[in-house]
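G., the chain you wanted modeled:
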Amino acid sequence: MITLSSFIGEIIDDVCKARSYADYSSAVLSEKYFADPFIKGLPIPHYTIDDVEIEVPVMVVGLKTDAEDLEKNKRSIVEITDKRLPSLLLRTLKYNYYTKFDQDEREKTQKEKRREALSRGENYVDENQERMENGIYVGVNENRIMAKEILNQYIIISQNIAERMKRHLQKYLNEYNYEVLKLLDVTEDFGKALYIKTKAVLEMPENSELGSFDHDEIMKSARYVSNIMFFEYKKIIGNNSGVQIDVSTGQMNEFSSKFDCLMHIKMKIREQDLNLLVEDKGGKEVRYLSLT
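Predicted structure as tokens:
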């Protein structure tokens, strides 16, 4: 059995693959045409799929809701959080460290260059500041090696926050009174709790040597991690719900006891090209897909 949405999605996915196979085939032929002096100047055969019409009989088996897998989904959410969260937290903490380090280095360099400029009777202009004021992105250098002591402390902090979040999620999900888990409810609570837990751990006395973390830094990190976990939870919540169908209908006929449960799906798929666009926004490469 399979859900109706998954079945339709697989059909469309196969049509897309058929188009990609045709494109690859044309690419291979172009190499052969180029290598053969007799057909080198001829156009390369290439075919597109304008419209595809499909009619498929399927048997409706039933309707499956998330309520049937509620407890299983709750366990899966806690498990994926326990698996992914420590590394995500460590990544954000290291990024914040590098950002601060770069900022301190820039301020130190600015003071030295300003002092040198004043000694020569010249005005000092901060190039990085000018770039940022003009909307040009100034990147963070993450290639430097972090001190082992700081890295170990960040690992401990990440594990501490992750453990607190695991306990929070277990309590939240156990007290969840709805029959169906709602993705936005779970991720919204996750984001709020992550901010509170992160702030509490970073403000512990034993972590004071790492410096202060302001509200915006913690909020930004919590939002970043929450966005990633949203897609992890999406794979769990609602993944198997929907109309359940059986596509093995080839042997059925009007005398079959299940004939009354048959449903005929009529699909018309039209090809539409996508272009990968790349833009340079302030020194940062941005990629996105656009319909033609």
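The CA atoms of residues 27 and 153 lie 53 Å apart.

Shout if anything looks off.
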